């Protein structure tokens, strides 16, 4: 093989590798979007790691959540105990006595600045119009082989993060882990440790009654 032919072959191989990566990102995204479109309810447990770049500190949390799409969510922390986030369909309630005792924040569910109600849908609702999506690496998340997608909001599209990394299960297309980097310097990683979709949910979980004596702050 001549030197020119060898160079051409290497260029073709490199081009093929780039194409395969792009196709892999598209295939992973399509798999995730299709899987999530079939989900009506979710019951799950999770681990959260919060990292603050400004202070170099981090904190871990654990809990469980239930979701009834499109607008009902219940997040109950077991560590720190008693922290709750609830969307009843009209309002989002943030009750975090571990960090802000004596108050609960109340926001309209339509508030773009409130916590996303459809946790995974934040990444999978019309993603190609909202984000530049590229392939990341691969990994094993809680025993599930997964491919990573990197999402960066497109110019003109607001999002609660500057960059997100989302790990999609190779088998069922469900999101098993995600990490969002915010402009404030906070990075939040959520790992799903157990997941059940389209299972019965507890309707009472989506009702929040502020504890006696707690101040309600409306935003």
By DSSP, the count of extended strands is 12
Percent of residues in helices:
10-25%
**Main structural class:** alpha+beta
Low-confidence stretches: 1-23
CATH top-level class: Mainly Beta
Query: In CATH, what is the homologous superfamily?
Result: Lipoprotein localisation LolA/LolB/LppX
Estimate what percentage of residues fall within beta strands. Answer: over 45%
Number of domains: 1
Computed Rg: 20 Å
Work out the helix count.
Answer: 3
User: Could you report the average pLDDT, rounded to the nearest whole number?
Assistant: 88
Question: What string, H for helix and E for strand, traces the elements in order?
Answer: HEEEEEEHHEEEEEE
What overall geometry do the principal axes of the alpha carbons give? globular
What strand order characterises the main sheet? 7-8-9-10-11-1-2-3-4-5-6-12
- CA(first)-CA(last) distance: 70 Å
Verbal overview:
This protein is of the alpha+beta class. It has one domain (3-218): Lipoprotein localisation LolA/LolB/LppX (outer membrane lipoprotein receptor (LolB), chain A, Clam). 20% of the residues lie in helices and 47% in strands. The protein contains three helices and twelve strands, in the order αββββββααββββββ. The protein has helices spanning 3-37, 121-124, 127-130, and strands spanning 41-52, 57-68, 72-79, 81-88, 91-95, 103-108, 131-141, 144-153, 163-169, 175-181, 186-197, 215-218. The chain has a twelve-stranded mixed sheet with strand order 7-8-9-10-11-1-2-3-4-5-6-12. β7 and β8 form a beta hairpin. It starts with a helix and ends with a strand. The model is unreliable at 1-23 (pLDDT under 50).
């Amino acid at each position: 093989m001549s030197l020119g032919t060898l160079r051409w072959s290497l260029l073709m191989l490199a081009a093929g590798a780039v194409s395969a990566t792009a196709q892999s990102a598209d295939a992973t995204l399509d798999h995730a979007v299709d899987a999530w479109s079939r989900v009506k309810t979710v019951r799950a447990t999770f681990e959260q790691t919060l990292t603050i770049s400004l202070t170099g500190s981090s904190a871990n949390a654990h809990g469980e959540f239930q979701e009834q799409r499109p607008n009902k969510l219940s997040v109950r922390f077991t560590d720190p105990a008693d922290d709750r986030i609830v969307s009843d369909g009209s309002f989002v309630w943030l009750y975090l006595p571990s960090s802000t005792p004596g108050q609960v924040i109340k926001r309209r569910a339509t508030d773009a600045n409130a916590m996303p109600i459809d946790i995974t849908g934040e990444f999978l609702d019309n993603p190609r119009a909202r984000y530049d999506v590229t392939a990341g690496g691969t990994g094993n998340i809680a025993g599930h082989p997964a491919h990573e997608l990197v999402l960066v909001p497109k110019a003109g599209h607001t999002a609660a993060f500057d960059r997100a990394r989302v790990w999609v299960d190779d088998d069922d297309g469900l999101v098993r882990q995600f990490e969002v980097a915010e402009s404030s310097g906070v990075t939040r990683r959520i790992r799903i440790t157990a997941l059940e979709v389209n299972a019965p949910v507890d309707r009472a979980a989506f009702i929040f009654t502020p504890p006696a004596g707690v101040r309600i702050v409306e935003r």
